[in-house]
């Protein structure tokens, strides 16, 4: 091993440890590693920046724009609403709903799909008396499985495709992944319908738990006429920085004052709604002129009037909110929303709301302004999973939505027939939608997800360093020493297992990019078609079922379903083994 190889290997170990320990956001960890490789001279500027012009990454950016146009006009949401009307039982939901969703996710980015469908499914569950936890993990799983069928079904496929093109290997055809994707999707649906749903827990949703135990989450104090701070501000009354308590709203006759600012004036008769460590409310009760309302629970409808609404949001894996407290973030001022409660790993976080340090997957119950959902529905800060009645945008149009969907399907047909490359097709589709004003340029920018682009571009640069220094070849040789005597099947299985393990602890894109250079070296050494190994890596990088952090759709449903970390392992591990076996068998006997 040369010095350069050793340096890159140590850097990758540090990078992986930083990703696992969540030292910083994934794209910043990867970009830092790329910068180190550039500064030390291991990569030239051209090599370091190669990822920013990678065909797969540019195609993905354009696909985000096209999918954003469809999402904006609520077409998929409307279709699912219609499908749900025909479903009357849990047994019927697999074929009538999950099978179509798997098809949608083959052509549509699965993250916005799960964000849009989570509240829809949860409402349906409440109407039918079914625990949402029985359906939300399956929703995530079927979109992951469906995404493996086509080239555009998941970002992982496009990134691997771009790396293959960059190495002169041609890349995937549009339906090349289907040889594995279709069998695992069909078997996955059968598993969920027959076995998976029996392993899923029956949990109440986060919002239901808050309202059922409202006394534990909220307290109400009424301001009497003898309150010494009448007509003074919240700050002057000493109600701003309370020990363990957080003033989220003032109910003033029929008016709702929320979020409550430090300059808000207190009036006689105000109902002060507090959240946080309700056990400390006795200290506040000692203040003259404040009367604790006992014997009655706060009516949730009291918090839904006027200019406020209750919103449930999940902190995303790429959120700048992570590792900072709500107070440090100045959450109330930044988002015009007050935090009622925070749930993590099926449990409420028991401390003063302002002191809670947020983590990916945390579920926030917010009291927010009327335009909160519209402002943050495509935010990278969190996934908004409250009910949206599509279409929600003021200029949304079902006709334009169907036109956008038609443009996407036309481009898919042209790619399948070999008329256009994937990149050219997406460029034409994006320009068509912009010129016809189906989506405005400013709106399109919001759907681009710059952080994902930076992550992919940085990861590609790191992959280039692995190949350039010979580290990828060295690692491939060491891996082959373990399994080569057992034949090609063992080699495919090893590549799958390593990629899948990386996916469960870091990100799917990062694991794919790190494994492609090693996988291609393995294919060259054993003398097999590199496409089979590339398909294996793409499937394994997407097939994250065992943890909520391996894939963003798992994270989206984590809080809303009220799941524990172990629920994913219980349901996902058998599915993960099933997908691995099918992939290894198909790649070995059909692709080789």
TrEMBL record:
RCK C-terminal domain span: 205-290, 298-382
InterPro entries attached to this UniProt entry: Cit_transptr-like_dom, DASS-Related_Transporters, Na/sul_symport_CS, RCK_C, RCK_C_sf
A biological process from GO: potassium ion transport
Protein keywords: Membrane, Repeat, Transmembrane, Transmembrane helix, Transport
SUPFAM superfamilies recorded: TrkA C-terminal domain-like
Superkingdom as given in the UniProt entry: Bacteria
A GO cellular component entry from the record: plasma membrane
Gene3D superfamilies, alphabetized: Regulator of K+ conductance, C-terminal domain
A single GO molecular function term of this UniProt record: monoatomic cation transmembrane transporter activity
Name by which UniProt lists this protein: Di-and tricarboxylate transporter
Naturally occurring in which organism (per UniProt): Tenuibacillus multivorans
């Amino acid at each position: 091993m040369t010095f350069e190889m050793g340096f890159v290997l140590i850097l990758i170990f540090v990078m992986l440890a930083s990703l696992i320990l969540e030292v910083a956001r994934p794209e910043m960890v990867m970009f830092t590693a790329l910068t180190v490789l550039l500064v030390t001279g291991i990569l030239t500027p051209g090599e370091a920046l190669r990822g920013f012009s990678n065909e797969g990454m540019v195609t993905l950016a354009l696909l985000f724009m096209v999918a954003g146009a469809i999402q904006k006009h609520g077409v998929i949401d409307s279709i699912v609403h219609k499908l749900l009307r025909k479903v009357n039982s849990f047994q019927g939901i697999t074929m009538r709903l999950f099978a179509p969703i798997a098809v949608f996710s083959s052509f549509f980015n699965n993250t916005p799909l799960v964000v849009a469908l989570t509240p829809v499914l949860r409402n349906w569950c409440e109407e039918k008396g079914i625990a949402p936890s029985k359906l939300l993990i399956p929703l995530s799983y079927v979109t992951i499985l469906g995404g493996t069928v086509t080239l555009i079904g998941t970002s992982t496929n496009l990134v691997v495709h771009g790396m293959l093109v960059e190495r002169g290997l041609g890349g995937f055809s549009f339906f090349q992944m289907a040889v594995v994707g279709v069998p695992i999707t069909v078997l996955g649906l059968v598993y969920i319908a027959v076995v998976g749903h029996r392993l899923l827990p029956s949990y109440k949703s986060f919002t239901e738990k808050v309202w059922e135990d409202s006394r534990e989450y909220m307290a109400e104090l009424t301001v009497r006429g003898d309150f010494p701070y009448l007509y003074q501000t919240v700050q002057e009354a000493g109600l701003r920085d309370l020990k363990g308590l957080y003033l989220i709203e003032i109910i003033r006759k029929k008016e709702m004052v929320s979020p409550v600012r430090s300059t808000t004036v207190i009036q006689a008769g105000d109902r002060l709604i507090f959240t946080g460590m309700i056990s400390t409310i006795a200290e506040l009760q000692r203040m003259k002129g404040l009367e604790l309302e006992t014997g009655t629970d706060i009516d949730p409808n009291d918090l839904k009037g006027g200019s406020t609404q209750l919103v449930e949001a999940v902190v995303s894996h790429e959120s700048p909110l992570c590792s900072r407290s709500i107070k440090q973030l100045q959450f109330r001022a930044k988002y015009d929303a007050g935090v009622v409660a925070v749930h993590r790993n099926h449990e409420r976080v028991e401390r003063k709301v302002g002191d809670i340090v947020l983590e990916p997957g945390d579920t926030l119950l917010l009291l927010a302004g009327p335009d909160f959902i519209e402002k943050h529905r495509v935010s990278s800060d969190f996934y908004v999973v409250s009910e949206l009645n599509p279409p929600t945008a003021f200029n949304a149009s079902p006709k334009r939505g169907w036109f956008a969907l038609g443009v996407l399907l036309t481009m898919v047909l042209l790619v399948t027939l070999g008329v256009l490359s994937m990149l050219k097709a997406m460029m034409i589709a994006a320009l068509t939608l912009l010129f016809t004003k189906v989506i405005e340029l400013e709106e399109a920018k919001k759907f681009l997800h710059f952080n994902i682009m930076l992550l992919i571009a940085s990861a590609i640069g790191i992959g280039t360093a692995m190949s350039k220094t010979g580290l990828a070849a060295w690692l491939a040789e060491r891996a082959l020493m373990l399994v080569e005597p057992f034949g090609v099947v063992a080699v495919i299985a090893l590549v799958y297992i390593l990629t899948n393990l990386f996916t469960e602890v870091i990100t799917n894109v990062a694991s794919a990019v790190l494994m492609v250079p090693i996988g291609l070296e393995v294919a060259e050494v054993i003398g097999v078609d590199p496409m089979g190994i590339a398909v294996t890596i793409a499937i394994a990088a997407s097939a994250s079922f065992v943890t909520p952090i391996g894939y963003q759709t798992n994270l989206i449903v984590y809080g809303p379903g009220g799941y524990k970390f172990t629920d994913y392992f219980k349901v996902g591990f058998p599915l993960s083994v099933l997908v691995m076996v099918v992939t290894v068998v198909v790649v070995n006997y059909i692709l080789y």
